[in-house]
Write a structure and sequence with these properties.
heterodimer; A: alpha+beta; eight-stranded antiparallel β-sheet; about 35% strand; globular; B: mainly alpha; three-stranded mixed β-sheet; about 65% helix; elongated
Chain lengths: ~210, ~400
């Protein structure tokens, strides 16, 4: 069964375990993110969350996309922030098989903002089960101190819920940096958008 | 119940063994003839047996849930158009059947036991004329008119543990609440409903024969039903081939007689019910005008799923009735989303051709412009983007595009 909420790079197995076992045992799927400077994705970007979030643990056996990291406040069906850090050209946002009928397009370093937006849309349609997808706006916005874009959208998913999202990103030295927020349109979007905005603005590249 | 289930890979795998066995022993199944297909119910049919009454009660509940789903497209004109078609090919039950249109980009249609039918938008995209759509609807009506659901329900009940059926039935009412009928029927609970009424091969053959008869009587060219089937097989194969799941000779799909023999049967039945000298109308012009308001959405839903093999086949099929700006634009989108080496250039060419047609959507100008800029033809690119903004000044991405135009 297709999971109805898009979680980039997420392995299905731990999520299934999470929902069937219930709340008492979290199986270590999530770890706490405290209100302090936190490195995300492959460690090349750091953000300061305004309140505690939950980081979804990455299961390296199933899921070795080190550029992508998922956070949630109230669980992935309700809200989530995905960090994409330094995704190289020719790589994908999600793990997928070549033989999959429907493919999330690969990222290329020469992609312009409208192409990246289209790539995200297809990710939501293919992996998130969105049956209707509306672009609300695409506008210029600085990200990590570089000229980038802000992409706003909403989508009706196969679980009959409307969700709404915002992505802020830029291609820097041929690599994609992106923070993507997606939550149910009623309540949860408005609830966590301020957190997203704080982090989209305080995200910094780390000097290595 | 569902048009495409029969050739889904899953059912192929499940049915392959038995089928291979019957092939080996050389059992040939005789074709069900349209002339033998008499409707088993009349107008205003209501169940009288206790078990069927119970089934209808469950289905009423399911219908209530489905009719309230926000996945449905409720555009009154479109829905009444579909209702008119079922009214023409529904035989004696024409006035009793209800039809719902679900916004799901897959090729599917299904009939529920109490006489309501759910059609997916992906089906509308794939039909080239009204006769093809009527053929699918007539096939579904055939299941209802031949009482296939209650027959298979009784069969299931005989075979299964009573408690298991009770549990399934109890889940059914609620299950319909989250009714997502996505590709290969993804909602687990709805799968349960469908599995209760899995039709036998013989029933599918009956529905085909009944359907051929119904559309012929309504004045549609009966051969269109076979053409639909041919298009469906072609698309599945194109998609599989593209993904290098080429089925070698001797594998299930190649040796599976069902799709091709079903097509052959449909052709024979069509010939049988065609009356020489009678004028048949495939209703293409009417179909295109009724679908015009959602045509772009349907193409968008399909192409953005990035199934390049399937989408290409589909575009080429639709283009058999003539290329236009819309189809060329989406051809470009298929290449652009596929995004392999050289696809940039292919997409750029499609966009360039698309904008030469008067019906090119505004988006074709946008991507034409962006492609030109990528090729280094900045001036021409900006001019094309300007054209896009002129056509769609309030486009959601206008702020970004304006910045690019400078």
């Amino acid at each position: 069964m297709r999971k109805s909420k898009l979680i980039l790079a997420a392995a299905l197995l731990p999520l299934a375990a999470c929902s069937s076992v219930g709340e008492g045992t979290d199986l270590g799927v999530y770890s706490l993110v405290r209100v302090k400077q936190t490195n995300v994705g492959n460690g090349s970007v750091t953000v300061l969350p305004p309140r505690p979030w939950n980081r979804q643990r990455r299961f390296f056996l199933f899921d070795s996309l080190r550029w992508v990291e998922d956070w949630t406040l109230n669980g992935p069906y309700l809200d989530g922030i995905t960090f994409v850090t330094a995704l190289p050209s020719g790589e994908y946002l999600v793990r997928q098989r070549r033989s999959d009928e429907r493919q999330v397009p690969k990222f290329r370093s020469d992609m312009m903002a409208p192409e990246i937006a289209a790539m995200l849309e297809t990710a939501f349609r293919v992996r998130g089960g969105a049956v209707q997808f509306n672009t609300l706006s695409l506008q210029p916005r600085q990200f990590l101190g570089y000229p980038g874009f802000q992409y706003d959208f909403e989508h009706l998913d196969s679980d009959e819920l409307w969700r709404k999202g915002r992505a802020v990103g830029a291609v820097i030295d041929g690599r994609l940096y992106l923070i993507l927020f997606d939550a149910t349109r009623s309540h949860y979007y408005g609830n966590a958008l301020p957190d997203f905005e704080v982090m989209a603005n305080n995200a910094r590249m780390r000097r290595s | 119940m569902c048009m495409r289930c029969e050739i889904s890979r899953r059912s192929l795998l499940a049915g392959g063994g038995a089928l291979a066995a019957s092939m080996a022993t050389g059992i040939a199944q005789a074709r069900t003839r349209p002339a033998d297909m008499v409707p088993l119910i009349g107008p205003g049919f209501k169940p009288t047996d206790e078990d069927e009454k119970g089934l209808w009660q469950l289905m009423d509940r399911a219908e209530e849930e489905i009719s309230g789903s926000n996945l449905l497209i409720k555009d009154p004109e479109l829905v009444s158009y579909l209702q008119d078609i079922i009214g023409r090919v529904g035989g004696p039950a024409a006035k009793d059947m209800r039809i719902y249109l679900a916004h799901i980009p897959d090729f599917n249609a299904m009939m529920f036991p109490s006489g309501f039918s759910v059609i997916f938008t992906g089906l509308l995209l794939r039909m080239r004329n009204e006769a093809q759509l009527a053929g699918v609807i007539a096939h579904e009506s055939g299941h209802f008119l031949r009482r296939h659901m209650i027959r298979s329900w009784r069969d299931t009940r005989r075979k299964s543990d009573l408690f298991a059926i009770g549990a399934m039935a109890a889940g059914m009412g609620g299950a319909a609440g989250g009714v997502y009928l996505g590709d290969y029927v993804q909602l687990a609970q709805l799968g349960t409903i469908l599995s209760l009424f899995a039709y036998s091969r013989a029933m599918e053959a009956e529905a085909d024969a009944m359907g051929a008869r119904l559309i012929a009587e309504a004045g549609y060219p009966p051969m269109e039903m076979a053409t639909v089937w041919e298009q469906l097989i072609g698309e599945e194969e194109a998609s599989a081939r593209y993904r290098r799941k080429r089925r070698r000779r001797g594998t299930l799909f190649d040796t599976h007689p069902s799709p091709t023999s079903r097509m052959a049967d449909l052709r024979l039945s069509a010939a049988e019910v065609t009356v020489a000298g009678r004028a048949y109308d495939n209703g293409r012009a009417r179909y295109l005008s009724k679908l015009a308001p959602i045509r772009q959405m349907l193409l968008e839903d399909q192409v953005k799923l990035n199934d390049p093999g399937g989408s290409q086949y589909l575009l080429n099929t639709l283009a058999q009735d003539g290329w236009n700006g819309m189809l060329r634009y989406y051809e470009g989108e298929v290449w652009r989303l596929r995004n392999r080496a050289g696809d940039d250039a292919r997409a750029a060419q499609s966009y360039a051709v698309a904008v030469a047609y008067p019906d090119a959507p505004a988006e074709a100008w946008r991507w034409h412009g962006l492609s030109l800029i990528k090729e280094g033809r900045s001036g021409e690119g900006k001019a094309a983007l300007g054209r896009y903004l002129q056509m769609k000044p309030g486009a959601p991405d206008a702020p970004f595009i304006r910045q690019m135009v400078g």
